[in-house]
Fold:
Amino acid sequence: MSAQMKQVSVTTMDGIAVVQIDNPPVNALSREVREELPAVVARLADDAAIDAIVVVGAGRTFVAGADIKELEQAAWSTAEPPDLHDLLRLVEEAPKPIVMAIHGSALGGGLELAMAGHYRVAGPDARMGQPEVNLGIIPGAEGTQRLTRLVGVEKAIEMCVSGKPIGAEDAKRAGLIDQVIEGDLTMGAVAFARDVVRRGAPHPKTRDRADKLGTAESNAPLFAKGREMARNTRRHQTAPLRAIEAIEAAVTLPFDEGCRRERAISLECVRSDQARALVHAFFAERNVAKVPGLPKDARVADIKAVAIIGAGTMGAGIAMACANAGLQVTLSDIAPEAVERGLAAIRRNYESSVTRGRLSAGTVDERLGLIHTCVGYDGCATADLIIEAVFEHLALKRQVFAEIDRVARPGCVLATNTSTLDIDHIAAATNRPASVVGLHFFSPAHVMRLLEIVRGHATADEVLATALAFAKRLGKVGVVVRNGPGFVGNRMMFSYMYEAQFLAEEGATPEQVDGVLTDWGMAMGIFAVDDMGGLDVAWRVRQELHQFEEPGGRKPLAADKLVEIGRLGQKTGKGWFRYGDDRRPIPDPEVLDLIESVASSAGIRRRRISNDEILERAIYALINEGARVLEAAVASRASDIDVIYLTGYGFPARRGGPMFYADTIGLATIHDRIAAFHRELGPRWKPAPLLVRLAHEGSTFREFDAMPKAIETPASRS
Structure:
């Protein structure tokens, strides 16, 4: 017997009702599901022919959570976020046992639903978690209250603060589920339900469990440790600490009072600036795959074999990223010793992963087995994708592409890893510019999530679509940008980096600037970033891009002097800072003397500079250049810029990215401060025309993203 509703169906098996939630793609607890499921449960509870209920998810997962679009609406309005309390109470108070059968993911609201059931079983591949802190909120549907009762204070804090899901076996050990079921999950859950029916009532309500709540004395060190973990791993974020506050309510208040306290905290978090920023970042990352002008049905080439030209730090990292994704890799360079150095670096990185317990020796052997080496271009003939990762020099890259063009098979995608150079000039060295695309990896390439995908003037739609699919295969966030000096990320970083150097020449110190930036939330200070990348690399970019050649403009002086005397950063143990074996930056009086000397020779007046001025000049320089990038359509959306900076440049997630942050301050305020800097500091601070326009209109970059724009197509580019 079966009864069908729109998103919830019921099938009975000898007195056991199997309730299936079918709301693809992830069975989110949408408004429709929240309306249909209670009606189904209530009807089955009154059906004398039904002895027990099993709840399952259709497709590839159980219930992956609430509908985040509803959360977004609540964050930006007075609308209430989804309320599951009546549904959960109905489930828990049902007079017949309800078994939640979990496969795939049970996250957020999905896990909260599962914990309201009397029993939980799961397939061995199931993952369960409370990831709400990743969106700047806490579980708001009794999650902290039930989770604490099932797994105890310490595990509940770990899960809610980290936001990381746990596997089925871990969940079983913790007490979150009752049984791991091998084989057919639905049939196993039905058998489990029959067994609990035979055993008879009472069936446990999670709300009534108290054996894992601990005492005030036993819990005090756990809460202290949890708060320390939250401050260390989620710097400056409020939601993890608020989640601990809700867990504390679970052990100090009766269940219903604890739920009310959790709900109040949840509502406060939902409408916080941090939640709005993190929800914005979530949707922005999803939207980068929607590329204006790229047909949805663009053909995607099947990439199985990748050849990488250049076995230096970047080439070796790209090789690891590809091998980690199960691709066949050929790593080459012009000399055998260069290839050996690259392979040795790969082995060291993998050995480090084994030592840290991140990979098994067997997995490393498999991945190393995918990486082959050669000298020259011998490995290119059979490759589906060739990635050039040589020295950042235009003439050299053009030479390499001319050779690649000669040996690559028809249909092969040709990619350059250039971080700043004109890919149209590089593509012009071939007879197939339509096959050329930029794949700008970030170092370390096997770790960093961002892949800046650069669309050249001639890049074919299928090549662009293939690049996006390749990024996804590697587990990276592929953001499509247009060609131009520095593309998006580095073009904006130049303004940010040079302004920091000007601040140092005017009286700040590198450690003061970096301290202000990291205290504000940046993963690294900009001087430490420059040292990590290499001051010689930045110097070479200045020459290649002919920066600071316009008369009357200010150019950074101390950086060139440091390169001149061989202080190139971490690679030489000295740059803006000194470095020991741990590679931590150490302030160096020699650098301060050098900066002061250079500034004095140039007639730069030095003064005491406040932390507020440092922050404004550094971050507002980034925003102003971002507005120019948008106006030039190098980036399609302000939110694309945010994703680039969140995933590739260490911008604090709780601030949503530079363009979103500008909106939170107010574009009129940003504009007025930039205009003041323009008057005080000269032409580099001229407000971007788009910023002027949006500030005058009282608009935002977020609203700019929603404005109609011309769609660029290959025809319009020709």
Summary: The first strand starts at residue 2 and ends at 4.
